[in-house]
Amino acid sequence: MSRVEPIAPPPSPAPRIAPSERRRLVARTVPVRSLDRATTTAAYRLFASLYEGTDHARFAADLSEKQLIVLLRDADDHSLRGFSTIHVGDVVHRGRRATLVYSGDTAIHPAYWGQKRLQREFSRVLLRQKLRHPTRPLLWFLISKGYKTYLLLTHHFPTSIPRYDRAPDPELQTTLDDVALRRFGDAYDRVRGLVRHPSPHDRVRRDIAPLRGPLLDDPHVSFFAARNPGHVDGDELACLAEIHLVDPLRIIARSWRHALMRRRRRT
What we know:
Blueprint: E1 25-31, H1 37-50, E2 51-52, H2 56-64, E3 68-74, E4 80-93, E5 96-108, H3 117-132, E6 138-144, H4 147-156, E7 160-161, H5 170-184, E8 188-189, E9 194-195, E10 203-204, H6 219-227, E11 236-243, H7 246-266
Helix pairs in contact: 3-7, 4-6
């Protein structure tokens, strides 16, 4: 288990940033063991500003289980404006040894939503894992309490479950159930594909990207809402994607095109 500096409870949620003050993010993936106390405290403060029911001891324990963390910082003042924790392990899939990448706690300040730095950096993590073992299956395991994270999966990884536009691959479903049961035990509802925590757990604040109105016209969003009606209470939808080499390459290329268009609009 990685050592993580103790986290002091935040005095208040992180302050909001006006749209006119939005700036560019830069991303870097580092080992969790390299984090200092200031960074872990800033990460928890950001997390608590977006999620209700947070607990700094639970956050620290979850962080200690991960090996990597993507840090998203403001390009100008270097303040922490986002992060995503990552665990890498092995699993059996389709009768073969596979690499399993598990995304843990993730948060991005709302003022920086719409930028693609997290997608690009996470894709680089996936690409490195795939190139390290090119013949081994690569899987991404995700539990999602918010539709935005779920959309990252469905929009970028065609071989993923669950999704509205195709029936689940039986072998992928078997692996998903095995992974979720092993990690969450009785908290995993295999019938509904949900992780339902037995004790109070963090959940997206109701004023942060509420799931209503025109959003539900998106079939992926409406599917998420139907499959996980308890997301407002912290229920999490268990998801799994099988990653092919072309997937992270496509995301990286799209992210660079998006960044180029943003620069052109500013000039």
